[in-house]
Amino acid sequence: MKSYENIFISSLTTMRIGGIARHVFEIEDEKDIPEAYNFASAYWYPTYIIGGGANTIGRDEGLDGVILLNRLRGFSENNGEFTIMAGENWDNVVDYACQKGYTGIEALSKIPGLVGAAPVQNIGAYGQEVANVFKSARAYDTATNSFITLEKKDFQFGYRKSIMNTTMKNRFFIISVTLEMKPGHMERPFYNSMEKYIEDYGATDFSPKGIREIVSNIRKDKLPDPREKASSGSFFKNVYLDPIETEKAEMKGWAVHRGHDGNKINSAWLIEQCGFKGQLLYGMRVNPAAPLVLINESAGTYANLARARAQITSTVYDKFGYWMEQEPVEIINTKNRGAQR
Ligand SMILES: Cc1cc2nc3c(=O)[nH]c(=O)nc-3n(C[C@H](O)[C@H](O)[C@H](O)COP(=O)(O)OP(=O)(O)OC[C@H]3O[C@@H](n4cnc5c(N)ncnc54)[C@H](O)[C@@H]3O)c2cc1C
Hints:
Elements: E1 2-8, E2 20-27, H1 32-42, E3 47-50, E4 56-57, E5 63-70, E6 75-78, E7 81-85, H2 90-99, E8 102-103, E9 124-125, E10 128-129, E11 134-141, E12 146-151, H3 152-155, E13 172-180, E14 182-183, H4 192-201, H5 208-222, E15 231-232, E16 239-241, H6 243-251, E17 256-259, E18 262-265, H7 267-273, E19 280-281, E20 284-286, E21 294-296, H8 302-320, E22 329-330
Parallel strand pairs: 2-5, 3-5, 4-22
Antiparallel strand pairs: 1-2, 6-7, 7-13, 8-14, 9-10, 11-12, 11-13, 15-21, 16-18, 17-18, 19-20, 20-21
The structure holds flavin-adenine dinucleotide (FAD).
Flavin-adenine dinucleotide binds near residues 51, 54 and 116.
């Protein structure tokens, strides 16, 4: 196992913010996992797992602890059952599935990051989410120091959540993920932006490959490539409403979307209504094409990010009465806090 000392968290995350992490271990083999956790336990260090760092924010104080960098590689597929090591690139898996004509993840094209993080927040886009094709995961359980298999029901998937980012945060290291898919295609009606693209460009191929192309083109126009621009997004989760809140919001003429997974107001709409689209706040640009993405143009520090976030969330609260929740996970420098070890 490769190990490093005093590495900037900013170099491990797409937002490129965050001070120094005391220890960084590259997990390239299953057996590295207990070794890294045993080291951390011996010194009462907190631990954090990072894959692609596209949904992780470092703080300026860094981490007096251990970061486990997930670099587990490997992939197998048999009749639509995919077993993928957690360190594989998510979009490569989508590409492979689409080439083979399997449906279920084609709308999740171009989501940055690695496979291990996909079930953590149940990645979703354009009407699909990973939970729909998820079968199981092999993981290391830091509470029992053992390798286990977790089934789909164990994850308790919801909108951008599972036990991995709620009740069991930091307990498991996901080693591999098994997905089940069948040949087929998505059914219309698609998401509004996809229908608009189809109308504008006359797209007719709705096979997994065709949908991948549509989604990739929509995303290319709207979202920055985090390899080129330091960024994070969606930075805020959408706001879900109960039936009474839904009625109130509709009476006020706000943009409520009623759906089978609940009624919501897109946080992008809330941010836009407050005039933040395209604005530069403390060096943090609210992406003009998709305001849920924040671009670190010159913010540099977590303190500036926090100022920009506070301005956006408090303005939205004052105007609409909703607190938007942050989506990316933060690396908090604390020793021996419960499940964080
Ligand atoms: C431009 C942009 C667009 C995006 N678009 C979308 C989108 O459309 N839909 C969407 O859902 N998300 C989107 N995201 C968010 C992000 O791409 C996803 O959350 C993705 O799954 C992050 O993968 P990662 O490997 O970079 O995660 P990381 O940031 O490395 O990790 C995220 C979380 O998962 C945990 N984790 C990582 N690997 C493991 C593991 N092996 N075992 C246990 N825990 C682990 C980490 O500790 C952390 O809490 C976008 C991000 C960006 C920057």
